[in-house]
Amino acid sequence: MKANGQDPAAEDLGNIQLLEHVNVTQPDQRAATIFYLMGLGLTRDPYMNVGISNMWVNAGEQQFHLPTRPAQVIPGNIGLVMPNLDALRERLTGVKEHLKDTRFAWSDAGDHVEATCPWGNQFQCWEPSERFGRFVLGMPYVEFMVKPGAAAGIARFYQAVMGAPSRVEECDEGMAAIVSAGRDQSLVFQETDRELPEYDGHHIAVYVADFSGPYAFLEKRNLVTEGVRNHQIRFVDIVHPETGEVLHKLEHEVRSLAHPMFKRPMVNRNPAQSQMGYAPGRDVFGPVVSA
Are 144 and 158 within 8 A, CB to CB? Predict the structure, then answer.
């Protein structure tokens, strides 16, 4: 039933309160610095993992975790909202020579910019718009390519197990499961006929309000890969909740709202600042979401 012409269900965020970070390992911190900080214009977390074995990169209220190990590549796209695509184009042009011997590339897709990191992870960068809700800087979606016929079961898994509103709709390549992963955030599982690589261990981190419910389902079926520790668990297999069929592999770092890092304030710099054109008082970028 709609109230005043609006659907109350559209206001339900569901159990997943926040998609916080994407973790992809990479073998070269210098190249990662050039791409994520100089190219994309994001910010290295100044407080955590400041050595050479890992780097956390802030993108609004979300992060990339980049441990130094052999490269992991997500089969799909990572969506970013950025405040100024013209400035992004200039930065990406500026790092091209530094990354010439890698898989780095970028192209102008009209309403967005597409960029590929030195190891093949693909990014779709957009300016703020009504489509992305309050986002001014951040990660509104992550898309994963999945096998044909998997989308409906994946949507069912997130609805029944994770308590996340989900739907299945036809997109460019076919059917896709679209899962609510926090305010204005989604996980997208896009079916494809293309050959998919073997799962390499990349993971995402989400915060959930109901922690024990998903845990009980996963533990009963021996799907928990890391038990309760520091207010979180991990699992990899996304299964059909009725048949148990494994539909996709994606490690989830599932955190309760009691986790000490829930809604931790992120430092975001203004990438437009420069030594020659320095503007006092404009070092920090904010707000990362609109009012």
Answer: no
Distance of alpha carbon 123 from alpha carbon 265, whole angstroms: 24
Strand 122-126 to 232-239 pairing? unpaired
Q: Is the pTM of this model over 0.85?
A: yes
Taking the C-alpha atoms of residue 276 and residue 63, their distance in angstroms, rounded to an integer, is 29
The DSSP call for residue 26 is B
Cα end-to-end distance, the chain, whole Å: 28
Sequence-ordered list of residues with C-beta below 8 angstroms from that of 225, at least 6 positions apart, any chain: 234, 235, 236, 251
Give the Cα separation of 264 and 134 in Å (integer).
Answer: 18
Look at residue 42 and give its three-state secondary structure.
coil
DSSP 172-223: TTEEEEEEE-STT-EEEEEE-SSPPPPP---EEEEEES--HHHHHHHHHTT-
Find the DSSP H helices in the chain: 29-32, 85-95, 151-160, 212-220
Q: Domain residue spans in the chain? A: 8-256
Looking up tokens 């659907």 gives 7
CATH class, domain 8-256, is alpha beta
Residue 17 near residue 257, CB atoms below 8 Å:
yes
Per-residue pLDDT tens digits of the chain, which is 291 residues long: 455 556 666 666 789 999 999 999 999 999 999 999 999 999 999 999 999 999 999 999 999 999 999 999 999 999 999 999 999 999 999 999 999 999 999 999 989 999 999 999 999 999 999 999 999 999 999 999 999 999 999 999 999 999 999 999 998 778 999 999 999 999 999 999 999 999 999 999 999 999 999 999 999 999 999 999 999 999 999 999 999 999 999 999 999 999 999 999 999 999 998 898 899 999 999 888 887
Q: How far apart are CA 18 and CA 255, in angstroms?
A: 10
